[in-house]
Structure formats: C-alpha cells, structure tokens
Amino acid sequence: MLHRCSAIQIWSRAGGLSLNAPRANSRMPRMTFPQQHSILCQRTRGNSRKFKSIVMMPEGPEVRSLVDELQGCVGKRLVDFKFVSGRYVDHGRPRGFDSFASTMTQVKENPGRTDIINSVQCKGKFIYFVLDSGDSKSVEKEDSYLRSIWITLGMTGQFLNQSIENTNKSGPRWYIELMDTETGTRSLIYYRDTRNFGTLRFSLSEKEFADKIDSLGPDMLDVGQTTEDVFLSAMIKSSQRRNVCKFLMDQSKISGIGNYILAEGLYRARIDPFAALVEISTEQRRRLFKELRDVIVTSYESQGLTRPNGGTYRSMDGSKGGYEFELQCYGQTLSPLKVRVQW
C-alpha cells in the first residue's frame, strides 16, 4: 500500500540520509555520527499508524494568516460567546469562562463602548484576544487586571465568517457575536474543529497572561525579533542529546514550527532528522535557521498550506492556502532518490 510520508519516514525507508552508510548515487552528503549520541525513532510495520492521506495541523503561517483576517474584530464589542458542540458542551465550560463572563455587560445596560476587543494577536500557534477593562473592573485587582481569551487550533481548528458557516453541515463548536458600537451592526464568527483538539481559555490576570506568553519560545515568523543568534542560543540552551525534531517541535523552545515546516526545513538544510543536537555543527545550525525561516515566511506570504484530501487550512471566507506547490519533501510519495515509499 502506498502512503504519503513525512521527511523522517521518507529518509528512513528509502535511503535518503543515513546514520551509517549512504546509498549509491545519493545526492546528499554522507553523514556519520557517533552512535552513542544518536536518538533514533524506532518505526516498524507493526507500530506505524497508517493513514490514507496526511492530515496537517495549522502551523505558524496558517495561524498568522487567520489572525490577519481576525483584525476585523478589533474595535468591536464582544456581545456574546456561545458554545454549540464538542468538549465545552459535553464536559463543562473552558477554564476561566465563568469568571470572565461575570465581567461582561449586557448591551441593554450599557449600549456604548465597553467589552471592546483591543487586539487579536498570535505567538507561534497561540492566538489571543485582549479586551478592554469593561464596566466590571475590580479596583482591588487594578494592577494585574487584564481580560484575555486564549485559543489554540489543534489539528483542525478554523474560524469562518457567517456566510461560509451557513453552508457547513457539521456545525461549529462555538461562536462569538460582535457589535459595531457606531452602527449597531452585529456579526458572528464561528469556530469549527472536526477533531475537537483545539483549546480555549479565559483569563482576568495580566501576570497569568504574561507568563503564558513568556512560556513560548521565539516565534519563527517574527523576523525582527527571532534572529539567527536567538535561534542558535535556543539550540545551545537545550539538552544537546535531544533529537532535533523534538527540539524544533517544542513550542517552548521555538514557536510556530509544525510537521511540514520541520520536514521541509530539515530536508533543505540536508540534516538527518534522527540526529541529536550534539551531532549538528554550527554551520548546519545556521543553514537550518535559514531554511526554516525561508519556508515559514514563504508559506505565510502564500497564505499557508492546504493539502488535497488532508489539508485543513481554509481562510475565513473558505479559500485555500497556496503554498502546496513549494513543497519539496513533505507529503511526497517518492523519496529524495525518486524511490517510491512502500509500507
């Protein structure tokens, strides 16, 4: 049976990069590492999960693209937040929701500018809304009071505007109602999540919010802040015996990288995905940063990645991302040596 595979699966099964001996006529440089340092991912026919197609999760470019579209929420009043299906209907409301809801003001009590969304931003895959103080601000908590809503998309989370959601048969998990305080016009934004892995949390604490932001590593899409030196420093501070894939996927080290950015970056930098950090030279680390940055920025400029029959990214109006044609490794059915990947 033929399956699309990740970079790790392609290389390990079809003779791309090897920890031992290279295949004949390989275009890739020979890479030999001390075996005592290698962290190998043992994958066999017995323990590998089989999928008909890749189901990708939103990564940094897809999340940033959605946040760009959500800028239409800024300056509008949050009128309501309703749960329709999924975990927050079956297993109780999100953490902090009841306390947050108690700070909201009914429109009939105050039809003016309160409960206003001040900003919608992201760091890596983490999305957050920040609201004004509202009418119910606690004087006792003045120094640390900040209303924020935290969102992660999981594997299949996406926001849709009202016209698109009306055509969706599966229905949303939750939606928010907004109001333009100048015109009184109301609008709905829906959150859909087929696999229901996305998360939602509410906070009233500025410190709690700051701690969350600080817990995330530098955002690879933040070109001004996440420089090569910052990236190299994060690698140095991490355990050098750690596998490079695990390091890059750890959002507390570097944020915004997921499966396809990881696979494409390692392949283009010609770095073995089974290698530990100790096995990667400074020159290779610099090349890895360059390739990761190129992949993530180009994907963002193309409005993210949408894979046929398995890609999940759609904009709020239902359009697809355009990065698929740039892929060199992720989701390919042929190895870098043009050998079909068989399971």
Q: Residue share in helices?
A: 25-40%
CATH H-tier superfamily of the largest domain: MutM-like, N-terminal
Which fold does the CATH topology of the largest domain refer to? Answer: N-terminal domain of MutM-like DNA repair proteins
Return Rg in Å.
22 Å
* Count of individual beta strands: 8
**Count of helical segments?**
10
So what's the overall shape?
elongated
Number of domains: 2
- Overall mean confidence score, pLDDT: 81
Task: Provide the CATH top-level class of the largest domain.
Answer: Alpha Beta
One letter per element, helices H and strands E, the order comes to: HHEHHEEEEHEEEHHHHH
As residue ranges, the low-confidence spans are 1-52
- Terminal CA distance reads 6 Å
In the sheet with the most strands, the strands line up as 1-6-7-5
Description:
By secondary structure, the protein is α+β, with helices and mostly antiparallel strands. It folds into two domains: 60-215, MutM-like, N-terminal (N-terminal domain of MutM-like DNA repair proteins, Alpha-Beta Barrel); 228-340, Helicase, Ruva Protein, domain 3 (Orthogonal Bundle), CATH 1.10.8.50. Helices cover 25% and strands 16% of the residues. The protein contains ten helices and eight strands. The protein has helices spanning 7-14, 60-69, 87-90, 97-101, 162-165, 206-214, 228-237, 244-249, 259-269, 282-301, and strands at residues 77-83, 117-123, 126-131, 145-152, 157-161, 174-179, 186-193, 199-205. The strands form two sheets. It has a four-stranded antiparallel sheet with strand order 1-6-7-5. The chain has a four-stranded antiparallel sheet with strand order 2-3-4-8. Helix 2 runs parallel beside helix 10. The longest helix is centred in the C-terminal third of the chain and has 20 residues, at 282-301.
